[in-house]
């Protein structure tokens, strides 16, 4: 059945231009990143990073080289998955994107190592998709046995206590190094399952099956795994790549509206930091995305994965470029941590955080007012917040931002927009007063 | 001061023969490993492992090519450190071995990244060496600030609750990705600090300063880090390499006799699995080792590190060869887990476990009785146990051995001796009845 459908898989060779890092990476020199259609690659500028040295470029679908802004995105709505490759040398893996992929057992089974599988999921997703996934893992494959562990749902459970439940289940089930962990759920499940896989017996294989827009366009791709500490988000974890990411877009049919919008915040992010044409496409198609038009969603997911995969392939362990994927996240993490994990969804906090980063970029004189206005407009169309919760204070922001992972030798580096749409910098070289101005503009005290 | 002494560092090129893997690695085909003086390297047999592909061979001191059995080992007793390199491509690092190395600040300071250091130690070691290490880190280096976290001492604290204290301290101190963790203590501290470094902010630099024989000859080298689960030892962790290992042999002056003996169990192990001449040297020099003769100890540490580094360089993530370093450990871990973490020291459990593995090898007809006798004799000279605690039952062994990391698809693989002294195999291809016979021979029920 499904195995034959893959003979037509859509891995095509690269014909777009490359993204570059224009300067060597230090805490004090700002890194400037631009639209991938305008620059050439200079890998020598990355030679200080061992990981980047091994990274190669992403192969992307030829469709991305076409003027997609005006074309109708239809190629991903079929049983033939679109494939985006994350190119990381011997740790490369495919992202499968399409409708009905959980009905194609071969896609999953080709990535299962050993005979034992542990599905890690949550109490919301399990009743809807667990049986389907177990079926896909075992169909025509009687030698595989599947265990599952169902965690409570929500960001507030993304902690060490919950993680221990995964280890307990794996050890009690006597899983060995040849087993495979499968993350079935949103970003919290993917991050926790990935970190558990990285740590169980010092590392076992794992697969991502993201079921939210947030996880499908961002968190399931690139190998960032981890848990929260009560003082900050994702402070404990590992870089650990999956064997594959399987995105069945049908799983979005059961996603609550608020979760849908949350994921779109990350889609907007890709446009702002590196893909102006994608942003312009979003401006035209946000109503279709909010109405869950399958073609529009499939295209947004594919283009987001291509952007994410390309960045990760160039800078797996965040020496510089990869940090740009965190536009708005330093402000956003402060909101999530101070306001209470789970009260706002991650994408909601990121949306407000992006508005703050854009505000700061404008105050620095780095972008036109029109960009600020367009960011407001698109987030409002997506029904996302454009300011932090009213209870947030300047001190709450500063306290959490001080433990952000992008602090280096005491200096907080931020991702800020600079130049035309689609260009950003990752820098600690900005006027501290302007950061204060932005914080005070968005907080009562 | 110290910086000049290193111009004479003793890194010399390799002139011994190489160790080989004689077969490709599968769960069902036994891997046979022999004395490094007798075989040639066939790296193609390791091509299935991505890590091995990058590994290169160890540079060892030329002294190891001399007939060291009869020479007086004196070259490491000086202020010039002996250096053993662990060759892992861009993750290579030196092991410094010598007397008084904590009085040479440059050795440590050259490996400190960033301006912030967290020393992880325990309540036994801290009163003796913490000030000295803080002094070495900060002498002439006022830009570096040092935090410390003092954990309770003992294997029973090697768990997630204790690990969280390290994260708490690091986060409360607002350490960032450019910080360095320093493990000051024995194997438990090294394993926990290393895993914390691997996980904090998804990975920060760390340095090992082992203060026990066990840590100096084995656990501080090679990047195995982790914690125990109540159902089994070291089941949660990471492969994560330090920036350097600094072995100041003077720290052994304060080591209790029982800890000294425990470490010697691992020294004996190297002789049995791959270095017959080292074993013969130990047979002659065990009284000197037990009497803490500095020359003898320094030589035993250096030769152990050379063996460990060579194995790790060839097989960092334990595709096969590295598993041989676990001779006796599957039985030993069962003792530690069932009998209660910390009641027996790790080396004591390993000693009894080696006797059991050797007994099983003999029952299989794979070794001469003389080897079994020599193993008994040398462990008795070291005042180490040669049988498990009387309360251990066959069922207790089987229950813990079932979750051993060397189980693959349900098959327990063991390291067993086979052939002349210094040769071993890592295999699941043995008669299950003989394992039962060994367990029954050492347990009442």
UniProtKB/TrEMBL annotation, chains A, B:
- Which InterPro entries is this protein grouped with? Dehydroquinate_synthase (IPR050071), DHQ_synth_AroB (IPR016037), DHQS/DOIS_N (IPR030960), DHQS_C (IPR056179)
Where's it found, cell-wise? Answer: Plastid, Chloroplast
Per UniProt, residues of the 3-dehydroquinate synthase C-terminal domain are: 263-407
Cite a single GO BP annotation: aromatic amino acid family biosynthetic process
Q: Where is the signal peptide?
A: none
Domain of life per record: Eukaryota
Q: Which of the seven top EC classes does this enzyme belong to?
A: lyase
Q: Name one GO cellular component term.
A: chloroplast
Q: Its Gene Ontology molecular function terms?
A: 3-dehydroquinate synthase activity; metal ion binding
Q: Where is the 3-dehydroquinate synthase N-terminal domain?
A: 149-261
| Reactions catalysed | 7-phospho-2-dehydro-3-deoxy-D-arabino-heptonate = 3-dehydroquinate + phosphate
Predominant place of localization: plastid
What Gene3D superfamilies does this protein's entry cite?
3.40.50.1970, Dehydroquinate synthase-like - alpha domain (1.20.1090.10)
> Which SUPFAM superfamilies does this chain map to?
Dehydroquinate synthase-like
The coenzyme or cofactor needed here is: a divalent metal cation; NAD(+)
Known pathway: Metabolic intermediate biosynthesis; chorismate biosynthesis; chorismate from D-erythrose 4-phosphate and phosphoenolpyruvate: step 2/7
| Keywords recorded for this protein, A-Z | Amino-acid biosynthesis, Aromatic amino acid biosynthesis, Lyase, Metal-binding, NAD
E.C. number(s) listed in UniProt: 4.2.3.4
Family of this protein: Belongs to the sugar phosphate cyclases superfamily. Dehydroquinate synthase family.
Chain's role: Catalyzes the second step in the shikimate pathway.
Q: Mind telling me what this protein is named?
A: 3-dehydroquinate synthase, chloroplastic
Species assigned in the record: Actinidia chinensis var. chinensis (Chinese soft-hair kiwi)
